[in-house]
Specification:
Elements lengths: L2 E3 L5 E8 L3 E5 L9 H7 L4 E5 L15 H14 L4 E6 L1 H10 L5 E7 L10 H16 L3 H11 L4 H8 L4 H6 L3 H9 L6 H4 L6 E6 L4 H13 L4 E5 L8 H12 L2
Parallel strand pairs: 3-4, 3-5, 5-6, 6-7, 7-8
Antiparallel strand pairs: 1-2, 2-4
Helix pairs in contact: 1-11, 2-3, 3-8, 4-5, 5-6
Length: 257
């Protein structure tokens, strides 16, 4: 598995496959290189790069965390892809893509799937409360409770969370629980960073699922409105856990356009 070194010396693991123009995929919270089904479909038209964001999977981590370090990590992946690449991000990964596109000239096009800027739907107080409680739990070393808090914040029913906590895979969530603080930093106050969005000068596509909660659909619309000339689309029947088969052809059409 290839490994690159980011600006601060952190080792970032990545993989790639396919043939064609470079396309980088960026994961959301509690994920690392989770988009393999999507990558497999896109590799028909693109050389697809997927990487473990710092603190996850096979990548390293270098404290203290700063949002600029994650932007530098993505910039390093774009450099490994030849210096120019389209980039797609999901959930908090989409928010990272937006921020990176404002700073990295090698990003040629972006697509964002449901960046969870929940304050855009009137949930600014809830986002602030979640952020404060999350950092309290992480500072106390209560990783399992931090993961449970995130899942509740994302709308997972309490009974389902309790069931997951009893399963062996919960330990994998706890192992990367500190990165929930990183995602929280990427989302900042829960509003679209409009000053940064105005600086994005590349074509942008913002997507939402037609079966997703209204708060996420509103967040996607707000992001599209903030990005100059962005296209907004709704994938009917899809949720936040979008099916690769529904997403891949839409991305291919946009990135090859």
């Amino acid at each position: 598995m290839p490994v690159l070194t980011s600006v601060d010396g952190t080792r970032i693991a990545y993989e790639y496959g396919g043939a064609g123009p470079a396309l980088v995929l960026v994961d959301g919270a509690l994920c690392h290189r989770s988009a393999r089904p999507l990558a497999a479909l896109l590799e028909r038209d693109f050389t697809v790069y997927a990487y473990d964001r710092r603190g996850r999977g096979d990548s390293g981590d270098t404290p203290p965390y700063a949002l600029d370090r994650e932007v530098e990590d993505l910039r390093a992946v774009v450099a490994a892809a030849g210096g120019r690449a389209a980039v797609h991000g999901t959930s908090s990964g989409a928010a990272l893509v937006l921020r990176s596109a404002a700073a990295e000239p090698g990003i040629t096009r972006i697509s964002l799937y449901e960046p969870p800027f929940v304050a855009e739907a009137g949930l600014a107080a809830e986002a602030k409360e979640y952020s404060a409680r999350l950092h309290e739990l992480l500072a106390a070393g209560r990783r399992g409770d931090a993961v449970a808090l995130f899942m509740a914040h994302a709308g997972v029913p309490a009974q389902a969370v309790a069931g997951m906590r009893a399963q062996p895979h919960w330990q994998a969530f706890e192992a990367i629980a500190p990165t929930l603080g990183y995602d929280d930093a990427v989302l900042a106050d829960g509003f679209v960073p409009r000053d940064l969005a105005r600086r994005v000068g590349v074509p942008a596509l913002v997507l939402a699922g037609g079966a997703s909660p209204p708060v996420l659909q509103q967040a996607a619309r707000a992001a599209a409105e903030a990005l100059p000339g962005a296209v907004h689309r709704v994938l009917e029947g899809q949720t936040h856990d979008v099916a690769a088969e529904a997403l891949a052809p839409v991305l291919a059409e946009f990135f090859l356009g």
